[in-house]
Amino acid sequence: MIRCNDVQEQAQDLTEAFFEQWRNVLSAGDFILGEEVTRFETWLSGRCNGAHVVSMNSGTDALILAMRAVGVSAGDEVITCANTFIATVGAIVAVGAYPVLADVEEDELISLQTIEPLLSDRTKAVVTVHLRGRPVDMVPITAACRARDIAVIEDCAQAIGTLIEGRQVGTFGDAAAFSFHPLKTLGGLGDGGALVTTSTKIAEYARGLRNHGLRSRDEAFSFGLNTRLDALQAVALNIKTEYLDLWLQRRRAIATYYDAVLADTATGSDLGRGKAGSAYYHYVVRSQRRNELQQYLAHKGIQAAVHYPTPIHCQRAWLDSRSAVALPVTERLAKEILTLPCHPHLSDSDVEKIAVAIRDFDLK
Ligand SMILES: Cc1ncc(COP(=O)(O)O)c(C=O)c1O
Q1: Whose CA is closest to 102, among 141, 69, 73, 65?
Q2: Is 77 in the pocket of ligand 1 (CB under 6 A)?
Q3: Burial per residue of 88-127, b for 16 or more beta-carbon CB atoms within 10 angstroms, e otherwise
Q4: Domain 7-237 in CATH 3.40.640.10
């Protein structure tokens, strides 16, 4: 089976290197924070234009602390999209705020046009999700939000390597959350995340809050969380960072190939096609016969997935506690989207096989 992700291969290729480096951590007994964690934060800061990086134990916690750090609290409204992983909206709910869901453009991303009608005096923040590693058009959104004193948080969970005019996303807003979940382009061997910000104040606040709100061993300035990145995870991530650019290059090359070969098919190419700077965490096509296409590919030994079949406002969690929302583009796309395998462990022949299968399906 050609799989939709390379979670096993990413770990297996580097097993020896992990064990070799872990021995140092084991002998130093340096399990919480420490040198390896600082090294990882320094690396990510380098990718993010020298911004502050506060590593954590998940992207979800980074979103929660980003929200707290910019002052979102109970009763505030926070605007985001519904076609995202549940954690984006879960983090808003976790700080007691009210999620306001915006529809998206045909490229699956929110834009100033889709959020503008929802901005109000109650809006405290906007969370832009760089879904699939595609960059949201940040400049008009941040300009509109700054003019209204609304904070902007970037959900960069899927967006390591995503660029806007050559600059890594994550420093266009007030704060950003990255995820290093094993399925991500740069994935650990368990959970991991980071908050990125250009604000010293936000960074200091988040750094304290990730460690129980402690300023020193015995002095707490606020009630916080225990959400530190493990040293053993940091070791794995530090090893993988050396391969990231190669992996991104391969993802882009596969995407370029699909774009060329699928452009004239009924299924078509990536929904974000033509958008510069995508890191192709997902390569997503669209078909009105989506379920049939997915089954056809499975029959040919190709795993394709749907991210995400149920938008947040159609989830039980939303329906049981909130009023109904109509998001026509989001709802239509959810029925048609299909994520094709697009990761660095695919061979050229895998990629060709996938493209041929889609072309054959379209002729049926
Ligand atoms: C868009 C998005 N936001 C947030 C998250 C949450 O990240 P984590 O799983 O590290 O908590 C994820 C990851 O799965 C995600 O894809």
Answers
A1: 141
A2: no
A3: bbebbbebebbbbbbbbbebbbbbbebbeebbeeebbbbb
A4: yes
Burial class for 260, CB neighbours closer than 10 Å (0-12, 13-18, 19+): exposed
Question: What does the pLDDT look like over 170-211, one tens digit per residue?
Answer: 999 999 999 999 999 999 999 999 999 999 999 999 999 999
Q: Which residues pair with 220 in a beta bridge?
A: 214
β-strand partners of 285: 338
User: Regarding the domain delimited by 243-363, which CATH topology (the fold level of the hierarchy) does it fall under?
Assistant: Aspartate Aminotransferase, domain 1 (3.90.1150)
Q: Which two tokens stand for residue 124?
A: 């405290």
Question: What digits encode the pLDDT tens for the residues 288-308?
Answer: 999 999 999 999 999 999 999
In the three-class reduction of DSSP (H, G, I as helix; E, B as strand; rest coil), residue 291 is classed as helix
Say which amino acid occupies 83: N
Contacts of 138 (CB under 8 A, 6+ apart): 128, 152, 154, 164, 169, 172, 173
Rg, the chain, Cα only: 21
65, 158, 308, 339: residue to mutate for ligand 1 pocket, most atoms within 8 A of CB: 158
Smallest CA separation from ligand 1 atom 8, residue: 59
Cα(356) to centroid(ligand 1), Å: 32
Return d(Cα 267, Cα 272) in angstroms, integer: 14
The ranges assigned to domains in the chain are 7-237, 243-363
Q: Which atom of ligand 1 is nearest to the CA of 129?
A: 1
